[in-house]
Amino acid sequence: MITYIIRRCLLTIPVLVGISMVSFGIVQLAPGEPTALFIDPEISAEDREAYLEHYGLNDPIPVQYVKWMGQILQGNLGYSLINQGMTVQEMILARLPNTLLLMIVSAIIAFAIAIPIGVYSATKPYTLKDYTFTTFSFLGVATPNFWIGLLAVTFLSVQFGWFPTGGVATLNEPFSIFDRLHHLILPAVVLGTSDMASLTRYSRTSMLDVLDQDYIRTARAKGFKQGKVVYKHGLRNGLIPVITMTGLMLPNFIGGSVIIEKVFNWPGIGLLFIDATFQRDYPLIMGLVMVSALLVVVGNLLADILYAIFDPRIEY
Amino acid sequence: MSDLLTIENLKTYFFKKKKVIPAVDGVDLKIKKGETIALVGESGCGKSLTSLSIMRLVPKPGGEIVEGKVNLDGVDLTKLTENEMCKVRGRDVSMIFQEPMTSLNPVLTIGEQLIEVIINHQKVSRPKAREKSIELLKIVGFSRAEEIMKDFPHRLSGGMRQRVMIAIALSCNPKLLIADEPTTALDVTIQAQILELMKGLTKEFDTSILLITHDLGVVSELAERVVVMYGGQVVEEAPIDSILNNPYHPYTDGLIQSVPSLTGEIKELHTIKGNVPSPDQFPKGCRFAPRCHKAFDRCFNEHPDLKAISDSCSVRCFLYEDKQEEEEYNV
Fold first, then answer.
1. Which DSSP category does B77 fall into?
2. I want to staple B236 with a disulfide (CB 3.0 to 4.6 A). Which of A160, A299, B175, B228 is the partner?
3. B296 has which bridge partners?
4. How near does any CA of chain B get to the CA of A223, in Å?
5. CA distance B232 to chain A (A)
């Protein structure tokens, strides 16, 4: 098991290097450059040139990449071009906890709702309740999260005033768990909506398949009641494909958080990402890309390990 | 010997899109204590469904027991609630299935799958149940029983898995063991071992067996009496010797003719022409008539009843009805 985990960890290194090369190239392809935003338009061409020269922005892209990579290997993500004096590390670390909190709570809500509904639908397939859940799942999959977010803000926050419209906490108030949760609940639910919907479908299909297996008939023939048959003999088998899906869904949470953080004005790395992109703050963009890539890779790694724990047939 | 299981006029139908499919259509069956009975017939004749009806495990939605009694030791199983039935399954009646490769749960250890039945039906502690499981595994022929307890099913071969299934089935000393084609998926040498094992164990545990099979070799090995099913009904019932040497019903005769013989002259293997009709389109008269080479007019128009023609044999065929009536007339 341990050698499997080590081997799997080592495999992530080439993946991360590949991601860094591709995204470094893509970022440079976008039109515009950092000077356009913050330098006085009246500035002379020589000064502008000197600025670009000073920050190494005139170097060929491969040279820039090698320089950047050299610093990364020394644990330095670079300096923000826009927010002078701030390191990329500082900026990301200041925002990352907010995003992780949002993602984790969102994932927990999605799983806690999706799997029981999926299992329930599978035990009572083709009934009114099953069709109702199915309809809502399809709606959830088909509706973009940001739109649900906008509706939620419009109605639940603005019209009814049940929830704050955004932010992590009420300003100028002492810290309180309740206040934080109150701010967290809406973005967390909205961020997880489409994944919750597709997870419901996956767990339903997977459980339907499992409940039709011979070993379920064996479990019934042993005299177990429905609950034990479904949860002890069915669920563990039914969750195996769902775990695989979880690994694939992680990018959705990270990508989704970029938009949802904008909608709910949630100060996480998603919001930072949008700002950095519009300002062409190359070091910050690259830092954020690498952090997101790392999150996805680690998430997939965890899914693989869980998979091996859940399914004894996996040889590693 | 008294009767352990009495099935009377059992009817299990499937309801699909307003169509009624009489898959089991009025089956009568008796099993005495300690007796082994074989239920024989082609695929689709309703024999597996009969056994699932006894266990009340008819596939749902769609399948339903619509009529009849299943008496086990004086208790009508069709009248029990689901909770009461859960106490019968695995304790009084247990089952071995055709597919040993898929009948064990792949994510639970062999030990867990044995222990859980014992704990479910008997008031014993987990360590006691563990001891009993190891003992059972030894009885079914595992010398390294303690190691097997920790193994997962995918590490065992088909024959070994079927042994585990037998151990699970016998773990609570059931009164009746239903074996649904227990050797079909195994290779021939393993088949013999499994049959030998079942034979010995049921003697030891004093368990009756309902053996469901289409393999007449298996039947002659294990069973004392044979019940032949066709089209959801019993067409012949007789002791094993009588049926192998002197089958009455043309269908039984056809089945026996279809078994290749190692001795005797080499000739083309007999086949019964055609297929079992689908249960929703049974013919009006005798259900076997369209495939029967002895069929006459009456067979196509009237439905024969199952009638006793001697102390131990009964048959559902007009060929013998006249003979019987004649005999009655002569007496």
1. G
2. B228
3. none
4. 4
5. 22
Per-residue confidence band for A308, with pLDDT thresholds at 50, 70 and 90: confident
**Using an 8 Å Cβ cutoff, are B141 and B164 in contact?**
no
pLDDT at A34: 65
**What burial letters (b/e) apply to B75-96, b meaning 16+ CB within 10 Å?**
eebbebeeeebbebbbbbbbbb
Structure tokens at A25: 């190239």
SS3 assignment for chain A: CHHHHHHHHHHHHHHHHHHHHHHHHHHHHCCCCCHHHHCCCCCCHHHHHHHHHHCCCCCCHHHHHHHHHHHHHCCCCCECCCCCCCEHHHHHHHHHHHHHHHHHHHHHHHHHHHHHHHHHHHHCCCCHHHHHHHHHHHHHHHCCHHHHHHHHHHHHHHHCCCCCCCCCCCCCCCCCHHHHHHHHHHHHHHHHHHHHHHHHHHHHHHHHHHHCCHHHHHHHHCCCCHHHHHHHHHHHHHHHHHHHHHHHHHHHHHHHHHHHHHHCCCCCHHHHHHHHHHHCCHHHHHHHHHHHHHHHHHHHHHHHHHHHHHCCCCCC
Q: Residue range B57-63: average pLDDT? A: 82
Respond yes or no on whether the N-terminal peptide bond of residue B61 is cis (omega within 30° of 0). yes
Among the four given CATH numbers 1.10.10.10, 1.10.3720.10, 1.20.950.20, 3.40.50.1820, the one describing domain A98-280: 1.10.3720.10
* Tens digits of residue pLDDT in A176-205: 888 888 888 899 999 889 889 999 999 999
The reported pLDDT for the residue numbered A36 is: 66
Locate the chain A residue with the closest alpha carbon to B54: A221
For B89, the closest of A221, A236, A310 (CB atoms) is A221
CA-based nearest residue in chain B for residue A124: B61
A146 HSE (CA, 13 A, CB side): 11
Interface touch B117/A236, C-beta < 8 Å: no
> Going by DSSP bridges, is the β-strand pair B314-315/B233-239 parallel, antiparallel, or unpaired?
antiparallel
The CATH number corresponding to B3-92+174-330 among 3.40.50.2300, 3.40.1190.20, 3.20.190.10, 3.40.50.300 equals: 3.40.50.300
pLDDT of residue B331: 45
**CA B97 – CA B213 distance, rounded (Å):** 11
Q: Extract the tokens encoding B22.
A: 């009489």
Averaged pLDDT for residues A158-174: 81
Place of tokens 């790392």: A294
Is A233 within 8 Å of B94 when comparing Cβ atoms? no
Contact B104 A236 (CB under 8 A): no
For residues A53 and A79, give the distance between their C-alpha atoms in angstroms, rounded to a whole number.
Answer: 16
At residue A1, the pLDDT reads 77
**Which ipTM was obtained for this model?**
0.84
CA-wise closest residue to B227 among B36, B21, B69: B36
Amino acid identity, position A180: R
Rounded Cα gap, residues A255 and B161, in angstroms? 47
The percent of residues above 90 in pLDDT, for chain B, comes to: 21
Question: Who wins on pLDDT, B60 or B229?
Answer: B229
Is A218's CB within 8 Å of B121's CB?
Answer: no
